[in-house]
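ok trying this again, last paste got cut off
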Amino acid sequence: MLHVIDRANLDEGDERMAEVEHVASRERDTLPWVANVPAELAAMLTPRESAQTQEKMLGYLADKVVRAATRELEAHGVRDDRIRVVFKNGHAVKRILETVEEEQPDLVVTGSRGVSDLSGAFQGSVSHRVAHLAPCSVITVK
């Protein structure tokens, strides 16, 4: 299981993902507030977040998403010793394709998320680009 965080491209789409995963919620144009998380993490979110605080929050969100996916795999009978989690930073498509080249899987399964920005309209979504560029089969799920 691979989770990529593109710190150079964090935008409202990432906040929406956090909302969908029930990790964060957003009120109007204020900073997102975190729900269902330990108080010490919520206390770190101030109007003047430091880079270190943002890093901790991103790590927490990534860990929460990966843990939920791991539980889902286990619920479908995948043994714990068959699940390996890899975190990478950088451009999502590049990191996914690098990992595909390194690991040589038979299949890549990726989630689909809506792309709302102009570059997404021209370049396509991450899942779309991975499906076209990966040397193996790709399944995109909603």
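PB: full thing came through this time. The radius of gyration is 16 Å.
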